[in-house]
Design brief:
The protein is an all-alpha fold. Helix content is 57%, strand content 2%.
């Protein structure tokens, strides 16, 4: 048995023999005078708030911890390290669950007291706190390349030490409170920043935007389903420390790795993106191009490639395996963007093989999907939901659903709707479609206008925003397009169709017009399409007219009997 095991066993066994009030505390008697003095001062601060029996128990618990440190050769508090805390936690694994929790909680509060007296870092007590809550907090798994990047930024980060970062968490929370954020939102924000602080403190780092980017990029799974909330918090905090305030826009903490690409990469990528901008591609699409190609550039740089001329098919195949996505459609989209960049490089003579782009395959073939529309039963349930809408959230859902069902608007166009887009005198809505860039004017049915008016006058939060639909909770900014999907879910909570969101209202709208004999050209104009080609997929849903389509087998000379199976 190792000396570490003997020391750990000594501390734990001493604890077990001192769990009862009537027995003396052998651990305390083995402590040095300096350690005893520190512990006595701590117990004095607790006497006013807890009973004598509780003080005695805390003294026993903390004595075991301090004896453990003393046996590890730690003479003073300032010499405690995270390694000591980790070994100490491991030494308590043989205790009963409840006892162990009480034991570690007492030590956590003791370390918190020491940190307030500037005798140790606050991270020690936070480390045990996260451990007791069974929350992930350790360093995310990083490649050697990522670790080296952070190491290069370490000295620069010391201009903003972790302790200063910790001190700003409370005033940042106060800013969120002033902006009207709920307690739950603020609690999530504080937890996110404390997890980051613990990482910085354990790695002897200071706050640096690029370090945080790399940390979050490598370990966003730490936050599980709440990673998007964590991303926004990190963005807001960076804005707070940079500008001294928090804006109400939905900012995201995106990587800024473009600036850290080598010059030979940035030059060609910038030229490619400028070309795409001249093609009148939206900024969002250009950002997607940049994101995908930057991933490739960093990969090939890590492989030691110093020029696009040295890029080979084998390297692209290796990148294709390395570059993972949540869905095949996302993988296809990323590969397609990179293929276009490779074609651009070939046209400029930067790579020798003009067919190099073919080394990146498609993850899956294009699929033909069955058009899904709302059934009569589902439409009836939505109608009942609309009729019963009372709360502010329900009234907003009502207006959103009617815009989809009665006007065929996409979710992104619904949430982009502005006050100036609505013409109340000549009821209609005039807007530019986000997807196509086409300007569209749609007549507004009476029930749609009434629903929007009810929301604006009775249920919309007070705000100077020009957008019609706002968030129900602070900050009262434009609602995201996800509210449209949620509106449908609120009306049809049991709807089992996966992959069919708010867009089903647009499909139902067009199919309803088709079934009522509206000409295809008029339907295309109502949807904002440039032609009728996209309406073909809806024809199979026009059951009455489909019955007139089949040709008579008799007229075609095909007998009803016989054939290859006739013996």
């Amino acid at each position: 048995m190792s000396q570490h095991d003997l020391n750990s066993m000594s501390a734990v066994d001493s604890f077990k023999t001192s769990c009862y009030p009537e027995k003396r505390n052998p651990c305390y008697g083995q402590l040095s005078h300096e350690w005893q003095e520190v512990l006595n001062q701590y117990i004095e601060t607790r006497k006013a708030e807890i009973s004598e029996h509780h003080c005695s128990a805390i003294k026993r618990y903390c004595s075991v911890f301090m004896l453990f440190l003393q046996q590890k050769g730690v003479p003073v508090i300032s010499d405690i390290t995270y390694e000591h805390i980790t070994c100490f936690i491991a030494s308590t694994t043989g205790m009963a669950g409840k006892t162990r929790s009480q034991y570690l909680s007492a030590v956590r509060l003791f370390l918190q007291y020491l940190s307030k007296k500037n005798l140790c870092t606050y991270g020690f007590s936070l480390y045990i706190h996260f451990y007791l809550q069974d929350r992930p907090f350790l360093t995310p798994v990083m490649t050697d390349w990522q670790k080296n990047e952070i190491f290069l930024l370490k000295r620069e980060s010391h201009d903003f030490p972790a302790d200063e970062f910790l001190a700003l968490i409370q005033p940042f929370d106060e800013q969120l409170s002033e902006q009207g954020y709920s307690y739950v939102s603020r609690r999530h924000a504080t937890r996110t920043l404390l997890v980051l602080y613990l990482f910085l403190d354990m790695q002897a780092l200071g706050y640096h935007r690029e370090i945080v980017c790399k940390w979050f990029g490598a370990g966003k799974e730490i936050f599980q389903s709440g990673w998007k909330i964590a991303r926004k918090v990190l963005s807001q905090f960076d804005e707070y420390v940079t500008d001294g305030g928090i804006s109400l826009h939905n900012a995201y903490y995106k990587k800024t790795n473009f600036q850290h690409l080598p010059e030979w990469c940035r030059t060609q990528l910038s030229a490619f993106l400028e070309l795409k901008a001249k093609e009148h591609i939206t900024q969002e699409t250009i950002d997607n191009y940049r994101f995908s190609i930057v991933r490739l550039c960093f990969f090939i740089e890590e492989k030691g490639i110093a020029s696009f001329a040295d890029l080979s098919a084998d390297t692209l195949k290796e990148f294709n395996i390395y570059d993972r996505h949540l869905s095949t459609s996302g993988k296809n989209a990323c590969n397609l963007r990179i293929k276009k960049f490779l074609i651009f490089l070939a046209e400029k003579g930067c790579i020798q093989n003009p067919n190099l782009y073919e080394a990146l395959p498609n993850a899956a073939a294009v699929k033909e999907r069955v058009v899904i529309t709302l059934s009569d039963q589902e439409l009836s349930e939505i109608h009942n939901f609309i009729e019963a809408a009372v709360t502010p959230g329900e009234v907003r859902d009502k207006a959103i659903l009617l815009l989809g069902l009665k006007m065929g608007m996409r979710a992104v166009d619904v949430t982009n709707l502005k006050m100036t887009d609505i013409n109340w005198k000549n009821p209609g809505i005039k807007f530019i479609q986000q997807k196509t860039g086409n300007e569209l004017f749609l007549p507004m049915p009476v029930d749609v206008g009434n629903a929007i008016f009810e929301y604006l006058t009775k249920c919309r939060p007070k705000s100077e925003s020009s957008y019609v639909f706002l968030r129900q909770m602070a900050p009262y900014t434009k609602a995201g397009k996800n509210v449209c999907r949620k509106a449908l879910h609120h009306a049809l909570p049991q709807r089992p169709v996966k992959g069919s969101g708010f867009h089903v209202t647009r499909k139902t709208f067009s199919t309803t017009l088709l079934n009522h004999g509206v000409k295809r050209q008029l339907i295309a104009e109502a949807l904002g399409h440039n032609g009728t080609e996209n309406l073909k997929k809806y024809l199979s849903l026009d059951h009455n007219r489909m019955k007139a389509c089949p040709l008579s087998l008799k007229e075609l000379g095909i007998p009803m009997e016989g054939g290859i199976c006739d013996v």
